[in-house]
Amino acid sequence: MPSEQRLAAVDLGSNSFRLEIGVIEHQEFVRTDYIKEAVRQGGGLDENRDLTPEAMQSGWNCLARFGERLAGFKRNQVRAVATQTLREARNRDVFLARATKVLGFPIDVVSGREEARLIFQGVANKLAESDEKRLVIDIGGRSTELALGHGLQARKMESYRVGSLVWSQRYFPDGVLSPKHFQKAQVAAAAVLEGATNVYQSANWERAYGSAGTVGAIGDILVQAGWAANRIDRDGLEWLLDALVTAQQVERIKLPGLREDRRPILAGGLSVLRALFDLLHIDSIEIAQGGLRHGLICDMLGERDATSDLRDTTVERLASKFQVDAAHARRVGEVATALYRQLYPVPPNGQRVQWDRALRKLRWAAQLHEIGSHISHSDYHKHGAYILDNADALGFAVAETHRLGILVLGHRGKLRKIELELDDEGLRMQLAALRLAVILCHARRDPDIQDMVLSRDASGMLKLIYPSAWALKYPQSAYLLQEEVVAWQKTNWTLDAREGKL
Fold first, then answer.
1. Do 193 and 217 lie in a common domain?
2. pTM for the complete prediction?
3. What is the pLDDT of residues 245-265, one digit of tens each?
4. What is the CA radius of gyration of the chain?
């Protein structure tokens, strides 16, 4: 079967790492392979929120095995994401540097809301077509995601720092399963989740679904005990609570349908689910087949349609929310991409995807380069970078919004503030094109760049040639270009801007 028909999704969860592989048949994804390993990385954060060496090694070992299975896959056929544990880990960059190498593919750390969107999308695409209003719940190891929407579209999404692994460690550390321990765990979970009561209350949805993890584990136990399949209700939760309290200790839990890797974290997950039932007035939830991995697959299938990208909509919403001058942002974007095309002419078809991505990201940076002006015109580039580093930007990985933030931060002023980032040639060339575009558009009108030529040499140094007549006609622009030359001289890279014959 042609490799182009294969897709794979990798989910680096707090409890388990999962790999799903499948093929595209009649525009549908059909699973051919599934691997799950209980890595428990979420339990490997120390008191300083650093991953321990043991937790990192366990993750690397698992990803190396996944990487062997993914041999032969192309980059655009695999999507790997990490969730709450790596959102929290202060040393995540250390882990990800090696993890990316052993897996063989980039790993994106997604925000909590982006995770919730992907989960909803994965669940909805596994359900029968319907316009019903849906609540989707996913209780993971260190976080719980809630998403509200209808059809295939999530409208409200949130992530809360409460999960089966962390709650089991915190409220059942000695393995004792007493009513008192459960009460404390549920009250604490309710305190964290209380903010969900208004948006996610039962009046706003018609049916609730539970995805993966805790919900799936509890569902497996209940069906083995004679309860209805694919459904969890309040009576079932109360029966399970009684069963755990009767067991008294985690190691004494003996329930048909309970996987061994779920035993140590079942009590924490049950406490969180019972808190959600009470807070949101849930009578029952249906166990969904889809989840995060399926949401990733849906995104990859969507990316094959070049006209549709959620990130375009997200950028437009951010620009509108922060009242960006749309006409000027468009102008800067057009000039920046025109200059970038001079640095990197249209490549052969085999390299076109990466080139298109670089151009799109440059346009997004141009569209958002003044986003911080809504806060203050003074140092607006710093405000803009802060917004992008902290925004829940749907469709974007955390690293993507950080890179956009670097471009926004560096589009004006001294370059020392991003000096380390300049070693990345791709980013450096995008930044140069953006900075030059901002200079040439300084009068907030369409500039005359028809006879300008921007080039780079083999060592990555830049040269901009413009006609003498242009410099005479636009003296302020010519002056600003010479200021830009000085700015680059203070880095390891140079820009030569001068009059010359074309």
1. yes
2. 0.76
3. 999 999 999 999 999 989 999
4. 26
